[in-house]
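Help!! Second protein's tokens look totally different from the first
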Amino acid sequence: MGLKMLFGNFGFHQRTHYADANTAVFSNLNAKHEKNAHGEYSVVFGDGKIDLSEATTTDPIEINTVFGDVDVVLNPTKLYAVNANSVFGNIRLPDGDTVSFGSLRTRFPDHAGEPQLRIKANCVFGEIRFIVKAAEEKKP
């Protein structure tokens, strides 16, 4: 019955694909957070890459995945506060911490100061990986 609700019938050939700037269902999401952009991203039965390296919002950003696989790109010069919630999934933070069932609140890099960006990550039967963008080298 639950599968029938998800797929419309028991055949997988009738699944509905949907994608916009912040959401992907049976599709892929490639998003870069722009100034004043809507702060929620969702991936359901798909893959995603969300680039927050240049995000400047003071509002929290929410990232959700259900049966999805999402990479979140962060800037190494910013301080982040993350509230990670997972149920039968995996959320991997840049410092190596992971949460598979339950919640984890953390900051990184680990130093004092007010976070420049607050992120709430929710994962159910999927994976969210936080990746720190490599610092760009200045050319002489």
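Here's the second one for comparison:
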Amino acid sequence: MPRNEGERLSRMGRFADMFRRDEFEFSEESAATFSPAGLLMLPMANLSPGATAFVQTCYDDNWIRPDIDWPKWIEGDEAESLLSNPALIARSSIDQLEHILTALVRRDRFNDGALDHAYRQGILTAAVVRCAQLAVEQS
């Protein structure tokens, strides 16, 4: 657990370089298979070690806020604006970043692959870059 807000921002911001690397893979989709009983097992997104560390940091450092009604927020105008244009995330407040990360990480729990999609759309990279910028501003 970080000691202060600057450390929390810095810990999240450390993912910026990783996420910007061309060779970084956020996740890999497993193939559909059949169970021994003949049931279809749907494909799923398996997070890479770096992506797993990112999600764990979201939880460990309280970026995932239980007080945020993320299903309601994600349907609202602010989410529509931010999630449809990652460039706007460059001016996000800490509260907006918490809403973005809470909504995306929680949505992935119910919609496998949603977090990978957010990564491919540049949303997660924009969020961690903004965290890195805010960490520098607070130091």
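Reply: Different proteins will give different token patterns, so don't panic. The first helix runs from residue 5 to 13.
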